Every structure is written in C-alpha cells, then in structure tokens.
C-alpha cells in the first residue's frame, strides 16, 4: 500500500515516525524486539505497526501484562491503537469479546500475560506484545502466543518493552530470527514535556536506573563489574592517530550458533579507545573470518587478537585464509570471564577507556558480566576484554593471558 493510501486511513502522525519506529515489512525477521526508555515512543511504534497490519490481515493478538493494560495503554492510550489508526480508520472496542475491530473487519483480540492458557486455541496473522518485562508469566505466555501465530504466509510478532534484566528477556534476545533495536527517551524529546528529560537526567544521569529507564539498555542490579556511571562518562572522540590498533575476535563455539564477537580498539597516550563493534550472529567460520579481516583493513589494525580456546589452531587457519593485513595473535583463557574482565573494569573506573560511538549492545553485555545469567554468550564483551587486555594490560606478558 502506498504512502498516499495509508494517509487516507491512518492519522497524519504516522506518516512521519521516528527512525526507530520504522518496522519495515520487508525486513528479514519473525520477531522484532524494541527496547525503549520511558517515553521513547515504543507504544506508538507497536500501535503504528499493528494498525498497518490491520489494513491487510484479519486476525491479530494484543498481549499486555494485564487486560487493564491492554485496554488502557495499547487500545485507548494516547499512543494506542485507537489514536494512531486515525479518524477514517478508527477501530471500535467490543468489551464483551475483548477485541478491537477496524472498519474493514480486521480484529485484534486482547490477552493478559497473567493467563497464558487463554492463548491456547486462537490463531493469528500478527501480534503485538507490550511491556514484556512486566509480564508475570513471560516465558510461558510468549510460548503460547507463538504457537498461535500460524496464519498467513509470514506471521510476525512485535515486542515493545522497557528492559529489565529478566531471564525471559535475555533468552528472547539471544534467539535466532529476533531483530533487536533500542530507543532512548531523548530520541522522542520533541513529544515530551520540556523539563521531563532535564529533570530525570539531573536526578538519575549516569546511574543504572537511567541506563535502563531512559536509554533502553538491559542492566544488572547487583554483582556486575562494569558500572553504568563509568560507561556513561566514557563517551568521547578518537585522537588523530594511535600508537596501536587491534581487532579482537571471540569466535563462536559452534557454526552458525552464537555470535562472533568482533571489537576494534586503539591506544594513545595511556588511554584505550573503543572504535567499533562489528559483532555478528549466524556466520560460518569463513564468514566471521572475513568479517574480522574487513575490520582490520578498515581500521588499519596492527594485529588480529583471537581467542583460541574453542577452535585452537583452526582459528588461525581460518583467519589466515581470509588474507589479513596484519599478524594474527592467538590467546587462551586460563581463568573465568569475570576474572579476565576485572582489570578491564578497573580501567573504566579510572577513566582510561573512551567509547568513540554509541555501543548499547556492548555496554549491555559489559554490565551483565559477573551475573552468570546473561541468557547467551557475552561475545561482544569477551572481544572487548581481549582487545583492552592486549592494548593496556601487557598482552601476552599479563599473568592472565597466555599467548600460543
């Protein structure tokens, strides 16, 4: 359907969404996860997407923490489905059947995460799940919902939530076929009260609460090595030149399984600069080797530092076949992840690390190190630890790093 046709059905506000609110139908995803801060526009994004789906598919599901939340936020809220569908395509709420019906007959049925069994039996073309981290029975409800997404050629699920460090969210984020994006509250500042952001930043800026509630980052509450306040103040620009640049690689344990961690970092005058996070999931050995070598070429790296615990010399062989422009250095972990990360966390506390860009997924994993319940392998964080250990902690001479 063209933009002109959509304008006739949907409100004018939908024609100019924020970038993070664009959920393109042609993208290769079965589940789209939007992690957003408070007031970032995630409810609007979910409502906008489902209203568009109502133009083409007849049966949809709405799932919230409670039925009250579905009705008051997802349906009747200021950014809910009735508001975002516009006057010409505004749906009506049928309370007796707990469903929202559009003028063309498309219907979205309401369900509560308090009652997963209510999703047994119904089937849908699409579903919108809101505030997933507040669901009382998150994993069970999500499973029942997915069993019902079996109509049409391409059933899809959009999940919008302010993140919390729950097991269910970590598992969801690690699943194949899940596209994840993050939206900070500041991205939607134009639609918020003028003093809202300034007040909250003054009160909570640099804390874990701000990272979670304003930036949409999954953080841990206790036991983490990396503090939100240290990560918040480490943003900055890179120097004109570096003493040394490395690309650190944390290869996946299985082919097309976990992500391959690829982090680029440089050193200048006793400070480390994180330049890029090229981590990617679902690659073959040749695929992740080419990914790492491309990063080395792009940043004129002095070395490729690769963990060899899982693949041994195979890691060197695969990287060498991709024709790297610099030497390959294999490292092995002789202690656990937490012990390896402790001296790197100290560098952040000392203000000796600068992030030259926004790396929310990497920072999320760093704040989860030490908890033992990330739900997936912290490939980005592992690669960063190897990179900064090589640049700042003596590389192979450090007692916790053995070069093969």
TrEMBL record:
It holds the Pfam family Terminase_6C. InterPro entries: P-loop_NTPase (IPR027417), Terminase_6C (IPR035421). It comes from the Bacteria. Keywords: Viral release from host cell. Residues 248-390 form the Terminase large subunit gp17-like C-terminal domain. Coiled coil: none annotated. This is DNA-packaging protein.
